[in-house]
Amino acid sequence: MADESASRTKQSDASILVAVDGSANSYQAVTWAAAEAASRHRRLHILTSVGIQTGYGPGALLTESDTEWLRRDGERILAEAIRLAQAAAPGDNLAITTEVTFDLIIPTLIERSTHAHMLVVGSRGRGTLQRGLLGSVSTATTHHAHCPVAVIHGIAAIDAISATRPVLVGVDGTENSAPAIELAFEEASHRNVDLIALHAWSDTSAVDLPLVNWESARASAEAVLAESLAGWAERYPDVKVHRTVVADRSVRSLLDASADAQLVVVGCRGRGGFASMVLGSTSNGLLHSVEVPMIVVRSN
């Protein structure tokens, strides 16, 4: 019993960890993370890495002057991140801690994710040149982090209009989507908005499907969705749930529905996934195309 109590206490104290590198996209991640931390009454930990890959020749070694310049640059980035975080959560008495590390960012975030409530990253960092390209940090963390990872794209969606929009969750009818469903209900409840639970029951376009047994297939899909959501409405009676069943590919269906949502929540693997897969085709496809914030939830 003591161990269980200690585990719950440790989880409740877990912070929301956000990575920032000075790019506009990472500052968007900070504002989203600050609003999330404030709504959940959790500490916000802002981390920036000034580490440089060394060991590739004599010019790669840092002098003491180089190290000091990098540290000051990291502190400058953190100062701006603090300003934005406080502006995003005014009057909420948000607890903020910051850190400059010389360790490389990707392994650091993956290691820290074992103790974080959630990891928040921008979809693109300073090193990403192409607008549509997912950054190396967001790619690595969504594949390997141990906690839910929120990827913030072009907008943080914390403005007054976006804040009224629903949370969207993808439901595939397998156990892999159960943690995503749970987190989606939590997010909708904390944000006081509706939840759209979408189940795409075909891996081909609706126009390619034969008309035979259409109604039977649809009824079966509706039953799968209902079973997946069973019990959650009772646990979160304040959340109004809209059930959506479509005969289409899950990526396209969720992408279309995300246009009217403030947040998309998906599992890390779908109905075609297996234990050795670190990220399913649906979550991977959405990461490259969705515009609103998205959370990828790993199944335990």
Give the helix level as a range of percent. Answer: 40-55%
Biggest sheet strand order reads 3-2-1-4-5-10-9-6-7-8
Structural class: alpha/beta
User: What is the CATH architecture descriptor of the largest domain?
Assistant: 3-Layer(aba) Sandwich
Full CATH superfamily name of the largest domain: HUPs
Estimated share of beta-strand residues: 15-25%
The CATH class of the largest domain turns out to be Alpha Beta
Query: How would you sum up the global shape?
Result: elongated
List keywords for this structure.
10-stranded mixed β-sheet; alpha/beta; Rossmann fold; disordered N terminus; 300 residues; 2 domains; elongated
Structural description of this entry:
The chain has 300 residues and is of the alpha/beta class. The protein has 2 domains: 13-152, 3-Layer(aba) Sandwich (Rossmann fold), CATH 3.40.50.620; 162-297, Rossmann fold (3-Layer(aba) Sandwich), CATH 3.40.50.12370. Helices cover 40% and strands 17% of the residues. The protein has 10 helices and 10 strands. A 10-stranded mixed sheet has the order 3-2-1-4-5-10-9-6-7-8, with helices on both faces. Helix 2 crosses helix 3. Residues 1-10, 128-134 and 270-279 have low confidence and may be disordered.
